[in-house]
Structures are given as C-alpha cells and as structure tokens.
Automatic annotation (TrEMBL):
Alphabetical list of SUPFAM superfamilies matching this protein: ATP synthase B chain-like (SSF161060)
Similarity field: Belongs to the eukaryotic ATPase B chain family.
Keywords linked to the UniProt accession: CF(0), Hydrogen ion transport, Ion transport, Membrane, Mitochondrion, Mitochondrion inner membrane, Transport
Keyword field contains Membrane: yes
Role description: Subunit b, of the mitochondrial membrane ATP synthase complex (F(1)F(0) ATP synthase or Complex V) that produces ATP from ADP in the presence of a proton gradient across the membrane which is generated by electron transport complexes of the respiratory chain. ATP synthase complex consist of a soluble F(1) head domain - the catalytic core - and a membrane F(1) domain - the membrane proton channel. These two domains are linked by a central stalk rotating inside the F(1) region and a stationary peripheral stalk.
Stated name of the protein: ATP synthase subunit b
UniProt-listed Gene3D superfamilies: 1.20.5.2210
Cellular compartments annotated: Mitochondrion; Mitochondrion inner membrane
GO cellular component: mitochondrial inner membrane; proton-transporting ATP synthase complex
Record note on quaternary structure: F-type ATPases have 2 components, CF(1) - the catalytic core - and CF(0) - the membrane proton channel. CF(1) and CF(0) have multiple subunits.
C-alpha cells in the first residue's frame, strides 16, 4: 500500500474488471406463468411445508412471532413514526392490490396475449414463407431432375431434324440424278 497513494472517499480501484466474462449461452428455462402458492400474501408455501414435520401446524407462526418479539425485546428493531408510516403504506398497498389487482392483472394478461398473438402471427408468416420456399426448392429440384430428360429429348429432336434434312437432300439428289439419267435415256432413244 506504500505506492498506492490515497484512496479518496472510500473508493478502491480494482486491478481488473470483474465483469468481462460473456454471458452463458445455455438455454434459459421459461418463467412460470403463475407464481407459487403463498400464505398471507408474502410467505411462500415451501416454508410452511418445510417446518410442518418438525413444528406442526402452528410452528411457522410461532417462529415468526418469536422472531418479531426477539427483535423488539432486544431493541434490534425500534418502533417509531417510520414504523407507523410503513404500516400505513403497507395497508394502502395491500388495499390497492386487493381492489385493483385483478383488473390490472387482466389488463396485463390481455397485453401479454396481444404480444403473443403478434409474435405467433409473425412466426406463422415466416413459417408459411419457409414452407413456400421449401415447395419452390422441391419444384426446382424436380425440374433439375427432368432437365436431363428434356435435354435428351431436345438432342433426339435435333438428331431427327438432321436425319430428316439428310433424307430430304438424299431424296432431292436421287430425283435430280434420275431426271438426268432419264434425260440421257431420252437423248439415246432419239439417235
């Protein structure tokens, strides 16, 4: 610490940053749609089921009451005006949750359902376009498979055209030779 200098107002500089690692790319399980069961609005049911075999039905309540009395008797927690204000604010919050909670939850569920419907619509559109792309690709592959037959047929057509052209020329030559020979025969018969 000789060379470190003054620390200032409780500021300690770390030699390296502790937040350089990348996030885990492992799949994250989805959040549950509904919360777990609770008692009295804040205490999870698991606490009661954990304490039930050892303490019975009233055990968790006695634990909470004993803990509260211990905090008050040892003056770890002192009741003052802030406690009354906190209790009042808590009562108002509980009243608001009881009164407006279901309507706010229904509104939030409606918003969530709308978002899910939009996401599903986008997903369905993309799936339809992918399915159309797959069908187009299959059709193109079918055309490629038929291309060799098409080229064979075109080759055969060209060969047949060449054969027809050859036969026509051969026939034309034969007719011309026959005409000339007939002409020579006519000339021979005249003499």
């Amino acid at each position: 610490l000789k060379n470190s200098g003054s620390f200032g107002a409780c500021l300690v500089q770390a030699p390296r940053s502790f937040h350089q690692s990348s996030q885990s790319l492992a799949p994250v399980p989805p959040l549950p749609e509904k919360g777990g069961k609770v008692r009295h609005g804040i205490f999870p049911e698991e606490i009661f089921t954990m304490l039930y075999p050892k303490t019975g039905v009233t055990g968790p309540y006695m634990l909470g009451t004993g803990l509260l009395l211990y905090l008050l008797s040892k003056e770890i927690y002192v009741i003052n005006h802030e406690t009354i204000a906190g209790a009042s604010i808590g009562a108002v919050i509980i009243y608001a949750v009881k009164k407006f909670g279901p309507s706010v939850a229904a509104f939030a569920d409606k918003l969530n359902a709308d978002k899910i419907a939009k996401a599903q619509e986008v997903k369905d559109q993309s799936m339809a376009s992918y399915a159309q792309g797959i069908e187009n690709e299959k059709k193109e592959q079918w055309r490629v498979e038929g291309r060799s037959m098409l080229f064979d047929a075109k080759r055969n057509n060209v060969a047949m055209l060449l054969e027809i052209n050859y036969r026509e020329r051969l026939h034309m030559v034969t007719n011309e030779v026959k005409k000339r020979l007939d002409y020579q025969v006519v000339l021979q018969n005249l003499h």
